[in-house]
Amino acid sequence: MTAMKTVEDPRRYHPQFNSLNADIILVSSENTSYRVPSFTLRNTCNLFYGTSSSHDQVIEVDEKDTVLAKVLCLLCGLPSDHWESIDQVEDALEFAQRWDALGPMSVIRSSITAPLFLADPLRLYAIATRFGWDEEAQLASTHTLSLNLYDKEHRPKLERLTSQNLMTLLRLHRLRRNEFIRLLDNDPAFDGGNTVGAPCGPSCAEEVSHHLWRELKVRMFMEMDRRPRGDTLVGLEMEEWPEAIACWGAKCPGCNKVNYDKLATLRNIKECIDRLPVHI
Question: Which long-range contacts (CB under 8 A, 24 or more apart) does 32-36 make?
């Protein structure tokens, strides 16, 4: 009798996708093979809907292992590692979109507002607006308020936005700045500093110049342009501004009374910031 030789499969299979019962073999751009049931692909990806397959049919996929394995795990309901970066998420979304795999896209959407991704709000905003995810886009726009969109470092990410989505985001930043200064100029809480030619008080007829308050308003306007979130206006950073130091230390030359109640003014400033729009 002639001994039968076992023919070994030369392919390198992903450990989670190596079942002989699966009849489709997907091969990544890194030459890793994935056995997947055709039934699963036909029922989870509209790209494969209605297609027939032969056993051990090989399909080459132009995706790296990190992306292909992630999407396949989502398709098959298998556990997978945490997302490594927002780049990986965006690649997975693009791949799932090409395969018309709505399930993985919905799962990714549910996790896209994790702290890892909120740390890069412009990228998150670009992804959310691209896929029409309004709630995620609003949340991302809120987190961009800590950024100065005019810094050169943000230009590459902003250039990825459509002109409409870019203008919507710029409008939010500009609206917060303009509405804030409008409140400082017109809210009754600041009438004392905005009134021209008013005396110090009932017992002092000395006319108080409010140029220091106006200079502080200009500095706050510039700060809101740089960081529309407004958190630096009522924080420790503001304490070191020359304009703030001069304003809070200003006194009437006649009776030596301080011109402005620092704590009350800061409280009113914060209330104004809290009234500003927070998302697109």
Answer: 32/65, 32/68, 34/68, 34/69, 34/72, 36/72, 36/75, 36/76
Q: At residue 206, what is the residue type?
A: E
Measured in Å, how far apart are the chain's first and last C-alpha atoms? 79
- Take residue 131 and report the two structure tokens written for it: 């896929």
Distance (Å, whole) CA 126 – CA 132: 10
What does DSSP say about strands 24-27 and 57-60: parallel, antiparallel, or unpaired?
A: parallel
Give the mean model confidence (pLDDT) for residues 187-203.
Answer: 85
Residue 184: is its pLDDT beyond 50? yes
What the block records as the tokens of 180 is 């804030």
DSSP state of 92: H
- Residue 206 has, within 13 A of its CA and on its CB side, a CA count of 14
Looking at residue 5, its pLDDT comes to 45
